[in-house]
Amino acid sequence: MKTHRFASHSPEEQRRLSNLGHLLEGLLLAVVGCLALLNNVASISWAGMAWPIMLLVAGILLLILIYPRHPLVDWPSIWKDPQQRQHTLMALAITVGGAAELADWWFIWPLAILLIGVQFLAHTQHGQSEAVSRAVLKHRVLGSTLVLAGLLNLVENIIDADVLAILWPIVLLTAAAQLFLYREPEGAFEAYHGHEG
Hints:
Layout: H1 11-42, H2 45-66, H3 75-80, H4 82-102, H5 108-121, E1 124-126, H6 129-159, H7 162-181, E2 194-196
Antiparallel strand pairs: 1-2
């Protein structure tokens, strides 16, 4: 894999890469949601093993998109960027959530979804103010959707409610669609102005 400097991306490249990341993670999350539904509704046992593996793939893929494509000397700069730090924490949460599901630690994955949802609610955006405002709104809607999926999954695991076992993957599929359809607004990553909010 050819590496390049972290700061070498033009705003257009950053939008393209961000759109690609949202698209890929949306697709992987859609597969996770579908497999969880197959497991929870139709009791298809292989699907119950496959969706945590897909979480591992999604988390590792996101880490690869962030770090190994850049030289090792750039990794501290990547971590210092608030947006990339949030992406790193999300990737780690997805990976840990998938591993925990495989280990049958039922409470970790819902907490990981909640953590990711909260990260999206307060997701840092870079760019011109109008682009930042539009991106923040879309990320807050996504964050709210993920928080709801996490809460539904957590409660389902606590009280063993069949209806919640169906609802949380459907809400997760809604979040997957939001990720899949997300496109960085024009002006994103231009005239770098971070916005936390």
